[in-house]
Amino acid sequence: MAMPEQVLTGRAVGFDPATHGFAFSNAFVNEVLTLPNGAKITTAGRCGGMAYAALDYFLAGQPVPTWRSDLWAPSRVPPDGHWLAQLFTQRLRDSFFTGSAAKFVTWSMHSDDETWVFKGVTRWTKEEELPRLIASIDAGRPVVLGLVVARNLAAIGDNHQVVAYGYEQDRATGRTTVLIHDSNSPRKAVTLTSEADQHDWTASNGPTWRGFFLQDYTPRRPRVLTKKAPDGKAPVSTGDTVKLSHVWTGLTLHSHDLPYTHPGSDGLQQVTCFAGSDDNDRWLLVGTAGTPAGTDLHDGSVVRLRHVSTGRWLRSTAGVRSPLSQQQQVSASDTADASADWRVEVVDARPWTAGARVRLVHVATDTALHSHRASDPRLTAGQQEVTGFRKRDVNDWWTVLELS
Q1: Integer CA distances (angstroms), 343 to 148, 221, 275, 305, 367, in order
Q2: How large is the angle between the packed helices 83-96 and 47-60, nearest 10 degrees?
Q3: CATH code for the structural domain at 241-403
Q4: Does the keyword RNA-binding apply (predicted)?
Q5: Contact 173, 197 (CB under 8 A)
Q6: How far, in Å, CA of 329 to CA of 321, rounded?
Q7: Exposure of 68 by Cβ count < 10 A (0-12 exposed, 13-18 middle, 19+ buried)?
């Protein structure tokens, strides 16, 4: 007896936008040109960079960074000095320097319908690109798609790039659905759907696209700072060991058994921000005035940070200048006294949770723990300088990278 023909066919690989996508939207603004009068020409978005990077992490079996958009309010994306923003820029450029990227131009200049010479965008998509997508998904490989909406070169910036990780076909109706990760809808499942007699592809998050093509893609090894990203709602308490990430550059608060040697230095252990990840990034949170371990911290709490690897305490002293910016030096010493007291300032005066944006303010001098993109191989081991800053700016913000 013959088996009935299967009406629905499809497959999805293990890519999950809620896990493998970034937790903020593609709200980047790129400054591409400054005119003589000072006006800036900008473009929006780094969708290709975010798609390539998400796929890099997925294929490497590594977690994407879990930073949320509110860390960088009001811009809501990592600033250009942040390593993640720089990664998206580089991967976006990589996506454009591929042979397939030329289709953004050629498809934008061609009609949907076939001509005497060309199939047109509709047939190119359904007869050539869709079978390639299905073959790749059936082989267990997600792909980057170039989505085309432009109908002329002036609108080419309206085209888009996403990750496709599944499909479904209904043989009874001719409907095809493609599962995509779209950086404009962070951590949400999005679909592209087209009926048998339909030219366009309708996205579940709103736009309608003329068609799509598979982009050439070569994986790159991603930067992994932690494999144990905490729940953003987890409370931070005395007795916890943390890795702290500098919000504006994404580097990690770090110390190592080397002294400062610049003129006017206190000669104590260097404190820097590190672009990698190792045990020298771990700090134990210790309460003051007999505060017991396990006490939840909040806006206004005073705490000391003990460097786990060397046992020394994060401290600062008025009048001692940092090696590069000549701001107040931050170092680590064997002594736990008032110079090691830091006051927690949490955005909106909330409890300190792992996903919060916080300042650590030196109690004795009212300077904020601060970092910026400055380094010197002789004075900071080539790592980013950390200082105490009397004023307040975006370089004072920190968040928890790892919590244990």
Answers
A1: 51, 38, 26, 11, 10
A2: 100
A3: 2.80.10.50
A4: no
A5: no
A6: 5
A7: middle
User: What pLDDT was estimated at residue 40?
Assistant: 61
Give the three-class secondary structure for 237.
strand
For residues 74, 147, 21, 75, the Cα torsion angle rounded to the nearest 10 degrees is -10
Domain with CATH 2.80.10.50 in the chain: 241-403
Q: Is the pTM of this model over 0.85?
A: yes
DSSP labels for 250-293?
--EEEEEEEE--STT----EEEEEESS--GGG-EEEEESTTPPT
Supply the pLDDT for residue 3.
41
Count CB atoms within 10 A of the CB of residue 381. Answer: 14
Instruction: Provide the 3-class DSSP secondary structure of residue 396.
Output: helix
CB 169 within 8 A of CB 154: no
The β-bridge partners of 241 are 284
Tokens 């390639």 map to which residue? 132
CA–CA–CA angle 137, 139, 145 (5° rounding):
35
Residue 92 parent element (H or E)? helix 83-96
The mean per-residue pLDDT over the stretch 344-355 comes to 93
